[in-house]
Amino acid sequence: MSKQIYNWRKVVAGDIISFRYKSKKSTAGVLQTLLVFNPRLPVTRKDGTKTFHLVGLKLETRGNIPTITNKPLLVQLLENIGDLTIVDEKTGIYKVLIREIGSRGVRPTVYKRIQRDLKKFTIYRTYDYVQARKSQVFLEPIVLPKNVREALIEN
């Protein structure tokens, strides 16, 4: 299972990506794996400046530590968001096809469907798009249960 080099301009809602993000608190960038909801959400800050945010669900930290360790719960969450599909079978890279996508990304109906899970697992994250874009982006493989992988391969 290896990741694939990707391009920030190609990132869309439903992609599972990884990138190094250097926060204000840390000196070194930490590898983040994210299910993208909104790749470039326009935001107006309190001081009136405008910026963009990368919004999504954090799936893994430091490349291999899952935020949701229970794999059936992870699969259920991903299926509540949309249809899980295979991007590359050999490397284990998947994508979630989200039905409710608007001009700015995922619509609020998706958030309402998974609201309870977001509170339970605290995986909702926003990142400064300019800061995130400073690092290279990859399509990241995730580990799914064997029966789910086989079902996806059959379809």
pLDDT below 50 for ≥5 consecutive residues: which ranges? Answer: none
* Mean of all residue-level pLDDT scores: 88
Oligomer: single chain
Amount of helix: 10-25%
Number of helices: 5
What kind of sheet is the major sheet? 7 strands, antiparallel
Shape: globular
**Sheet/helix structural class:** alpha+beta
**Whole-Å distance between the termini?**
21 Å
Cα Rg: 15 Å
**Strand elements, count:** 11
Instruction: Compute the number of structural domains.
Output: 1
The fraction of residues assigned to DSSP E strands is 35-45%
Write down the secondary-structure element order.
EEEEEHEEEEHHEHEH
Tags for this model:
155 residues, alpha+beta, globular, 38% strand
Q: Any overview of this molecule?
A:
- By secondary structure, this protein is an alpha+beta fold.
- It has one domain.
- Helices cover 24% and strands 38% of the residues.
- The protein contains 5 helices and 11 strands; from the N terminus they run E-E-E-E-E-H-E-E-E-E-H-H-E-H-E-H.
- The protein has helices at residues 71-81, 108-113, 115-121, 129-132, 146-154, and strands at residues 4-5, 16-21, 30-44, 50-61, 65-66, 83-88, 93-97, 101-102, 105-106, 124-128, 138-139.
- The strands form 3 sheets. Strands 1, 2, 3, 4, 5, 10 and 11 form a 7-stranded antiparallel beta sheet that branches.
- A hairpin with a 2-residue loop joins strand 8 (101-102) and strand 9 (105-106).
- The relative contact order is 0.25.
- The model has no long low-confidence stretch (mean pLDDT 88).
